[in-house]
Amino acid sequence: MNRINETIRKDHKLLSIYFTAGYPNLEDTAEIIQQLQDNGVDMVEIGLPFSDPLADGPTIQESSTQALKNGMTTTVLFDQLKGIRKSVDIPLIIMGYFNPMLQYGVEEFCSKCQSVGIDGLIIPDLPVDVYHEHYQDIFEKYGLKNIFLITPQTSAHRIGYIDSVSDAFIYMVSSASTTGAKTGFGDVQMRYFERISNMELKNPQIVGFGISNHETFNHATRFSKGAIIGSAFIKFLKSHELSEIGDFIGSIRKG
Amino acid sequence: MSYNVNEKGYYGEFGGAFIPEMLFPNVEELRQNYIEIMSDSSFQEEFQQLLKDYVGRPTPLYFANRLSEKYGTKIYLKREDLNHTGAHKVNNTIGQILMAQRLGKSRIIAETGAGQHGVATATVCALMGIECIVYMGEIDIARQAPNVARMKMLGATVVPAVSGSKTLKDATNEAIRDWINNPEDTHYIIGSVVGPHPYPDMVARFQSIVSEEIIAQLEEKENISKPDYVVACVGGGSNAAGSYYHFLEDESVGLIAVEAAGKGIHSGESAATSALGKTGIIHGSKTLLMQTSDGQITEPYSISAGLDYPGVGPMHAHLYASGRAEFISVTDEEAMNAGLELCKLEGIIPAIETAHAFAIFESRKFTKDDVVVVNLSGRGDKDLETYIKFFNL
């Protein structure tokens, strides 16, 4: 069974962490993943940096620009992940924009993902219908789960379609925004989380965007299976050593 | 083969809507409604009225006597430079502001490079009394001060794009991010035939007034229904799309697209997308774009800020890949000389973008009976400083 499917069956609320591969330093990738696992993170999203990340706010943009300057490429990332499965067994997801994958060759990319032990992909600018029509067979051939986003503006009909094409979890974007733009949840968001929860979809939901601390993690997971933290973790990395990652994770879990 | 968009939003293999889910409701709302809204008679009435009374259309089709004589062919100039705000850009912004009103939007965002589209957007927002925010690369703000001032005078807020390379591509990213953060009340007026479907088609339709007028004007002047060639410069490609539009499916009309080679195609400082680009995704569209082997979008260069875009609209990618249009690239120097030549021979100072189109006559020869229409897409007032520097005037 795919590691993502296994993990989402666990009893507790899941904490997933996003980081940009190649940031702060080119060679940090494996160490960050190891630290995250050792400190009890349930799932990791490895950001493949892109020059023009449309859905991202300034924090992830800057980390992407820095990672590219540091020399990160698709090939370098796969090289860095080669031995990762010797010591890491939590699900690993690559999150990136479609163009670098298209240039690498979508099938070649998927095949490489499988060989280094990637479990799934999140590709914000690959729409569900294009995926369904052109790429689903390839992803499935290499055992990769594709994860789709929904937002407060996504219609119930479309959520149903996304749920039917998905087989892992649904990435529930907390509010209409780019990453890192807002923090904290009000009544509007809570009602939206609850509304989606009441739809009783076959895929569990994991909330992303706007989660930065213990409080927002708890709010986000009240009606969902878990939450994803990205920008807040990148900001932490900017001013801390990798050895301090446990402090960050502890502050989310325990407050 | 068709050269127009198909029902799925593709031109051949190019186009589509590769957008984050956050943009889907807005883009889908537009996709479902744009044809119906544009076909509505009250929309057309208001659109045509504004083009006539406010923009000053139809623009003349002028027989360029001395230029024709020099190059031994019949050259007509479609005078889009005589439009209000000085370029073809306003055809599209008039159309889109009416579209935004009918979609019930109360806030307009736009990107701009040289500032022409920003000015054209700020203009129609002032006309309609709608809030206007224009994203412009920090570097472009510094080098296009008069257009920044124009936008401010017209009541727009100009927001510097400080990410990436701080030029047009990044201004477009910032406008898209704004739209993601404001999903309900905002319409994004894209300035060219780029972006996710239906933008390339919608913008081409608004600009198609240009080829529509060319047909009527040629009938009157030459008693013919079509030219032998249409020549236009291509950055994103909106003036080219507009001047080709009614001739796309008629292969007896030669389409010539002129790109900016900058300091030379292989100089590392160029914007000749057809020569240097590969298929990829930029700003929600699958098209030809300049990128590294790793799929990172690279920064183009041209002396003209309006051609300084690393991609090209999907219609043009298809026209190139299918061989329907002839693509020629022209260096900064060739364009500047052609611009100056147009001043001396015809008394018209063209925008530097437009000057690229005129530079082909030195090497691309036509017969004496060929009727060649050049889309004179914009006037050169905004470029005086560049002209002054280049020629030490």
Structural class of chain B: alpha/beta
Straight-line N-to-C gap of chain B: 49 Å
Q: How many beta-strand elements of chain B?
A: 14
By CATH, the superfamily of chain A comes out as Aldolase class I
Helix content of chain B: 40-55%
Instruction: Write down the oligomeric state.
Output: heterodimer
Figure out the total of helices of chain B.
16
Output the keywords:
heterodimer; A: 255 residues; alpha/beta; TIM Barrel; nine-stranded parallel beta sheet; 12 helices; globular; B: 393 residues; Rossmann fold; 2 domains; six-stranded mixed beta sheet; four-stranded parallel beta sheet; 16 helices
Written account of the structure:
The complex is a heterodimer of chains A (255) and B (393). Chain A is an alpha/beta fold. Chain A has a single domain, classed as Aldolase class I (TIM Barrel, Alpha-Beta Barrel). Chain A is built from twelve helices and nine strands. In chain A, strand 4, helix 7 and strand 5 form a beta-alpha-beta unit. Chain A is globular, with a radius of gyration of 17 Å. Chain B has 16 helices and 14 strands. Chain B has a six-stranded mixed beta sheet, with helices on both faces. Chain B has two domains: 155 residues, Rossmann fold (3-Layer(aba) Sandwich), CATH 3.40.50; 215 residues, 3-Layer(aba) Sandwich (Rossmann fold), CATH 3.40.50.1100. Helix content of chain B is 42%, strand content 18%. Chain B is α/β, with parallel strands linked by helices and 393 residues long. The interface between A and B is large, with 40 and 35 residues.
